[in-house]
């Protein structure tokens, strides 16, 4: 059936688009489950909705995701019930026996959150791939106890063709299975149309007629009377006079090109005529009216370099005589040096809700300089660097010198 609706190249294009979008979904699922997730090997087929069966994934659980922006239609993900149980057990860190597992509010919420993250990443990948905004609705989960009822409530059509894409699903150390993706034929056509496939057949353009061969030599042919006159040594009959110019227009100049023609140039054949073999050099010499365009040389980049002005760090002017005498002892006191990338304030209620994977936004923008603290006092700013797999800081600014007593007592 797919050969009637889609060509083999279009079937491959649908599989590649789904492979790219769900490849991004696998990354999102890996981050959420803290396990390596692989979604590979898409197999695309077109079947009648009334002939659709679950096959190896029965008993199954379905999740419907509707497109609300950029695309029209919906995607229905069909997974094995045992695979859904494994995903829920990973999220909730439990081990539920197969006979005790049920789709309650907690498990449905967990499955929908995983699918929301996966299909959200898939929509983002489709947006980048198709070049337009693509957004989805909140996933809706359901059990497939009655397949006919599910077709009526969730399938794009109850009679007629639908697109079924099967994927291999692997979660490292947990499961190796497969799942299905069901969508409408119209959605599949919209996907491949977004990458330049035209579903409408176009009539082939008629081939242009071959031009008539030009006479050898590139000039006009001579009549029999002109040839006989030349052989007899006489003067050939005069060529017919050029037509007079219309009233109000200048008379044509003999030998000048007609309007719209290229001016003659030595080394080129006459305008509109094909050269005879060996008559003109090939390739033709460059035409003087169209010299080759040379790229403009790049403008030199001017970098202003200057010696940085550093303040002297001598502390003699601020030290007492006793401190000057004991300067060696003071300089040998160890201090705690720390680097702070930013701060934020949160309520106790928000801090108690922290868990693995929570995101805390600091008060500094990405790329800002970090603070170098000595015993809690900010003494310098700098940029973060990596040296032999260790983080470091390259000091770019020394702040006003803090009091040595504060650093020692801090």
Q: How many DSSP E strands?
A: 11
Fold-level CATH name of the domain at 2-193: Chemotaxis protein chec
Strand content: 15-25%
Proportion of residues in helical segments:
25-40%
Fourth-level CATH superfamily of the domain at 2-193: CheC-like
CATH C-level class of the domain at 2-193 is Alpha Beta
Can you tell me the overall shape?
Answer: flat
* Biggest pleated-sheet summary: 7 strands, antiparallel
Stretches where pLDDT is under 50 for at least 5 consecutive residues are 199-206, 212-220, 287-291
CATH architecture of the domain at 2-193: 3-Layer(aba) Sandwich
Euclidean distance between termini CA atoms = 79 Å
Query: In angstroms, what is the radius of gyration?
Result: 40 Å
Oligomer state equals single chain
Order of helices and strands: HHEEEHHEEHEEHHHHEHEEEH
Distinct helical segment count:
11
Averaged pLDDT: 75
Q: Helix/strand/pairing class, anyone?
A: alpha+beta
List the helices and strands and how they pair.
Layout: H1 2-5, H2 8-33, E1 37-48, E2 60-69, E3 74-80, H3 81-92, H4 105-130, E4 135-136, E5 140-143, H5 147-154, E6 161-171, E7 175-184, H6 185-193, H7 224-231, H8 321-325, H9 327-331, E8 337-340, H10 348-352, E9 370-374, E10 377-387, E11 390-398, H11 404-409
Antiparallel strand pairs: 1-6, 2-3, 2-4, 2-5, 3-7, 6-7, 8-9, 9-10, 10-11
Helix pairs in contact: 2-4
Quick gist of this model?
By secondary structure, the chain is α+β, with helices and mostly antiparallel strands. It has helices at residues 2-5, 8-33, 81-92, 105-130, 147-154, 185-193, 224-231, 321-325, 327-331, 348-352, 404-409; strands at residues 37-48, 60-69, 74-80, 135-136, 140-143, 161-171, 175-184, 337-340, 370-374, 377-387, 390-398. Helices cover 28% and strands 21% of the residues.
